[in-house]
Amino acid sequence: MIRFVVRRLLLLIPILFGLSILLFIWVRALPGGPATALLGERATPERIAQINKAYGFDRPMITQYLTYMKRVVRFDFGQSITLRKDVTAELVRRFPATIELSMAAMLFAVGVGIPLGFMAAKRERTWFDYGAVTASLIGVSIPVFFLGQILKWVFALKLNWLPTIGRLAPTRELVHHTNFNVLDSLLALDGGALWDSIEHLILPGIALGTIPLAIIARITRASVLEVLNDDYVRTARAKGLRTSTVNRVHVLRNSMLPIVTVIGLQTGLLLSGAVLTETVFAWGGMGQLIAGAVLDKDYPVIQGGVMFLAIVFVLVNLVVDVLYAFIDPRIRVS
Amino acid sequence: MSEPLLVVDDLHVTFQIRGGRALRAVDGVSFAVRAGETVGIVGESGSGKSVTALAILGLLPSRGVTTSGSILLNGQQLLGASEHDMQDVRGRRAAMVFQDPMTSLNPVLTVGRQLTETITRHLGVKREAARDRAAELLDRVGIPEPRQRLKNYPHQLSGGMRQRVMIAIALASDPALIIADEPTTALDVTIQAQVLELLREVVRESNTALVMITHDLGVIAGICESVNVMYSGRIVESNERHHLFASPRHHYTRGLLASVPRLDGAQGRLVPIPGSPSDVIAWSDGCAFAPRCPAASDACRGQAPELVISPEGGTLRCVQPAPLGMPVWSGR
């Protein structure tokens, strides 16, 4: 198992190397450049050339790449052009916000999706099943920005139950040790801040979690249906086990493999920046950072951000593969 | 003779299939099994033998299936009993061994876990005691190094071993009745004999009643005291084993026997039963076997033959049975 993990981690090196080249070329292929974005209306050819020279964008691309990579291997992604901040520090500062939002969304998606899919499978071809399948179809089809706006309009503006944007009430003071607001509130033993953080997580969490929820519910339903027909489930029933034990120990556990796969993939996707949700709810996470950087042609931020997310994505998938072995002993051997 | 342990009386199982048609999988089956006795149910696939087994343990799906008749286990009516009550019967008083040990054990749980969950469920013992009992059971079914085996997963065991584990699970709480549904079909021939021997031993030692469901008359010959032959949901002939083998009366039974290879070559050429089990007519229109029967005549159609007690013992459902004492293999 350790050898497997090490091998996968070593595989990250060529992946990141290739990605860095692709990214480097791709961001420079975007129309316009950082100088144009930075100067806006005041852009003149002379000032653009001046800025390009200052950042080294006038040099040959291969030289630029080598200079860039020399810093990247030391985990230094350079300086943001528009924000004038250290990219690495900015990523580290913002990533907790994205993790927190993704975890809230996944909690919602898994907590509702698995039971929903499971119950639909157990009641196959009943109205409950048809309802669940239809609802999940609507769930995957609804655009996130639309759902986000609707949620905000209903629960924040009309009913005034929950806050509209941000991660904390502007008036609240909280010492940030980790940048995870929930964790920081706990560390500060501040119940008010804790509740405040959770309240802010609910609407964006639901908006972001709806698509994964629908996907998880559908996969769970399909997987459980398959397992329900397996012989060992009949054996479990023939042993006189209680229905709840049969469901928990024999059905759910055996149907987990495909479910864990989609949970892993979806978690990777959520972590790699929920651009729309973060924008609608002014979340200030990775998604917003990278979306802004693309608009501003902020090369170092795009490159650093995407590389960082690639690392996260591979690590999440590694965790999923390790989980497989825990779920299914047959994988452990091979 | 003692009171029968299991009495199945006029059991009907009907599947509602799509389009509103009803399929009578089991159509008025009756038989009884005493403690320490082994009763065989034999027939081709689709004859309703497995459905009968599942009906006894209440393992048929609840939707689209209607059952009627009576299944008495030690006087307790199982047909129509609540799922909750059946969960106390299954594995505790009546256990089942399934056909394919490759798929009938849960691949992601250890053998020990699958054994102990039955033990703790029914015997109400602590985990430690359950593990001791599990090791004991594996030892009893002839698995060497039982303590080590408890930690194994099913895929680490051979087919024969797995079927022994299945039998150990069935024995977990000393059931009065074991139903074995084709327990040897998926195994190698040499392993088949071992598994049958094990089942025979269990019946002898624990005075268990055993219902052996199979399509293999060799299995019946090796283990059963009496045999019920099923065709298209009904019993067509039943008798004590030696009578049935010596003098089969129903042409379906004779066909089954004629298609079994014999080591002494006494039968000459193997004779398959013509047609397939799907070539049936409804019992309401006559004998379901008539389309495949070599002795069928007009008397066989129009009205279903009744199951009657034949004078020399056993029951028979045939209007033109083979004459008494005519061996299957003579004259070939």
What does this structure look like?
The complex is a heterodimer of chains A (334) and B (332). With 334 residues, chain A is an all-alpha fold. In chain A, 76% of the residues lie in helices and 0% in strands. In chain A, helix 5 runs antiparallel to helix 12 (256-271), helix 6 crosses helix 9 (191-228) and helix 12 (256-271) packs antiparallel against helix 15. The model of chain A has no long low-confidence stretch (mean pLDDT 87). The radius of gyration of chain A is 24 Å and the shape is globular. Chain B has 332 residues and is an alpha/beta fold. Chain B has two domains: 6-224, P-loop containing nucleotide triphosphate hydrolases (Rossmann fold, 3-Layer(aba) Sandwich), CATH 3.40.50.300; 230-316, no CATH class. In chain B, 31% of the residues lie in helices and 21% in strands. Chain B is built from eleven helices and twelve strands. An eight-stranded mixed β-sheet of chain B has the order 6-7-8-3-9-10-12-11, sandwiched between helices. In chain B, strand 11 (308-309) and strand 12 form a beta hairpin. The longest helix of chain B has 18 residues, at 189-206. The two termini of chain B are 41 Å apart. The model of chain B has no long low-confidence stretch (mean pLDDT 88). The chains are: A mainly alpha (334), B alpha/beta (332). The A-B interface holds A 230-232, 234-243, 245, 249-250, 253-254, 327-330, 333 and B 57, 59, 83, 86-92, 95-96, 98, 100, 103-109, 117-118, 121-122, 153, 155, 166, 169, 172.
Beta-strand residue fraction of chain A: under 5%
Average of the residue pLDDT scores of chain A = 87
The oligomeric status of these chains comes to heterodimer
The major sheet of chain B is characterized as: 8 strands, mixed
Termini distance of chain A?
A: 11 Å
Looking at CATH, which topology of the largest domain in chain B would you report? Rossmann fold
CA radius of gyration of chain B? 21 Å
Number of helices of chain B: 11
